[in-house]
Structure of Zinc finger CCHC domain-containing protein 17:
Amino acid sequence: MEVLPELYAIFQGEVATVTEYGAFIKIPGCRKQGLVHKTHMSSCRVDKPSEIVDVGDKVWVKLIGKEMKDDKLKLSLSMKVVNQGTGKDLDPNNVSLDQDERKKRTFRDYTSQKITLEAVLNTVCKKCGCKGHFAKECFVQPGGTKYSLIPEEEEEEVAATGYERDKKTSLADDSSKKRKK
């Protein structure tokens, strides 16, 4: 059986093939190849891996993952955590690898419940004059922008009908002024 490098080991490999999603690297001492995904080629964004490496290039890589899938061992490699000139480990404690893993995970709300405010303070702030909080909880700076609670749907409807009524009366006033002239 072939001896594979240990997890997080650094070695120099040769680029076997380049694809649109990364490059396959020959692992020295065995017939296996590992994939350097384009997100692990550089700390900068890589759109075309062929712009970074060519077939036959020698590159320093770090083994960052081993996964068994369909009875095949898949090896994940990274170039961005290894200095390509000296082969020195730029991430000895694997901090950036952990950060990359966290970025991939997305937050899922398994409760699927809407967040609602249960109570609204029926107060007016003495500091800013807005409804819904006390002066000691006010975050407005002197002369700054004022914030207030969003009105309920019913209040919006009442305000909208009141605005339309005011608009109609002002139009009627304008037309009566025109007739007087």
In short: The first strand starts at residue 10 and ends at 18. The chain has a mean pLDDT of 79. The chain has two helices and five strands. The beta strands are 10-18, 22-26, 33-37, 58-69, 72-78.
